[in-house]
Write a structure and sequence with these properties.
Elements lengths: L3 E7 L7 H12 L3 E7 L5 H11 L3 E4 L4 H7 L2 E2 L1 H6 L4 E5 L2 E5 L2 H11 L8 E5 L3 H13 L3 E5 L3 H7 L6 E3 L3 H5 L2 E4 L26 E4 L8 H9 L2 E3 L2 H16 L5 H13 L2
Parallel strand pairs: 1-2, 1-3, 4-6, 7-8, 7-10, 8-9, 10-11, 11-12
Antiparallel strand pairs: 3-5, 5-6
Helix pairs in contact: 1-11, 5-6, 5-10, 10-11
The protein binds NADP nicotinamide-adenine-dinucleotide phosphate.
NADP nicotinamide-adenine-dinucleotide phosphate binds next to helix 6 and helix 10.
Length: about 270
């Protein structure tokens, strides 16, 4: 079989880790696939999907600002993508293009990989943007019994909380009573350590909790370090990034890629930045 192509569409894409992560896994699996990134201007996502059909591109990753437009343009949506009206993965099923959203399942898988089961857990999600919405939806599907959403803009929290029956808008004290606390805001991204650059005051956390930061650049945020100092178990955001990509590849090539290889490739790329 001739070489097959998978691609990322988004804007900007220059600093995306996806090409590095996916190519490392393709190479490790010994499959004849290449992965490239296309900077596609806003409003051109449907045209990019037509290009996928015409050029026979075998798999597509989708990032901002195209996740919503692609959800409208594919032939069919998997359940999480339908609930979120957001697609980060396009794969073929016969002649149909199927849209999926693997972020939330990637989050759950990244915790399962380190022995953390979200079923029956009380989870506080700080943030209500695209990442938080994926996480709330996936937590609901995975059986979390108590999901609270805390966010700067209350209306966004209210919308995110509609994604799971067990979810509601939280108050600050919900952070202390949660088993798992997740930062799904962009606070801490790029190593911002300025005053207020933490999703919550670390004194709200305690040693019996699992504290997860979805920010992965830097891999260790100041908030994670503070949670670690309190004695909490901490999980960085690179795991979710790797596992959402692994779930994409599984849809494209039919086998689960090597996530250890993917993580090593991502860590090496981040160390260069
Ligand atoms: P988004 O849709 O833009 O949402 C941003 C969220 O952060 C919103 O809830 C926003 O609150 C909140 N926020 C931003 N600045 C804030 C501030 N100064 N104070 C309080 N709240 C603030 O972004 P996203 O796509 O959800 O991404 C969020 C983070 O998750 C980013 O760091 C991204 O890199 C990371 N992420 C990681 C993965 C992974 O695989 N690990 C995947 C996706 C995203 P408002 O609603 O009030 O604006």
């Amino acid at each position: 079989m001739s070489r097959r192509l998978a691609a990322l569409i988004g804007s900007p894409v220059a600093h995306s880790l996806s090409p590095v992560i996916h190519q490392a896994a393709f190479d490790a699996a010994g499959v004849d696939w290449s992965y490239v990134a296309f900077d596609v201007a806003e409003g051109q996502a449907a045209a990019a999907l037509d290009a996928m059909r015409v050029l026979g591109i075998a798999g597509l990753s989708v990032t901002m600002p195209h996740k919503r437009e692609i959800a409208d343009a594919v032939d069919r949506l998997e359940p999480a993508a339908r609930a979120l009206q957001s697609v980060n993965t396009v794969s073929w099923d016969g002649d149909d293009l199927v849209g999926s959203s693997t972020d939330g399942a990637g989050f759950v898988a990244s915790l399962a990989e380190v022995g953390i089961d979200v079923a029956d857990a009380r989870v506080a999600v700080i943030g209500a943007g695209g990442a938080a919405r994926s996480v709330v939806d996936a937590l609901g599907r995975a059986g979390s019994t108590d999901i609270t959403v805390l966010n700067r803009t209350r209306e966004h929290a209210e919308l995110a909380a509609t994604l799971a029956a067990a979810a509601s808008v939280g108050i600050t004290s919900d952070i202390g009573r949660a088993d798992i606390v997740v930062n799904a805001t962009s606070i801490g991204m790029g190593g911002d350590t300025s005053e207020g650059a933490m999703p919550c005051d670390p004194s709200m956390l305690h040693a019996e909790q699992i504290v997860v930061d979805l920010v992965y650049h830097p891999i260790r945020t100041a908030w994670l370090d503070a949670a670690d100092a309190i004695g909490a178990r901490t999980v960085d955001g690179l795991g979710m990034l790797i596992h959402q990509a692994a779930l994409q590849q599984e849809r494209w090539i039919g086998v689960r890629p090597d996530t250890v290889v993917m993580r090593a490739a991502a860590e090496a790329a981040l160390a260069d930045r």
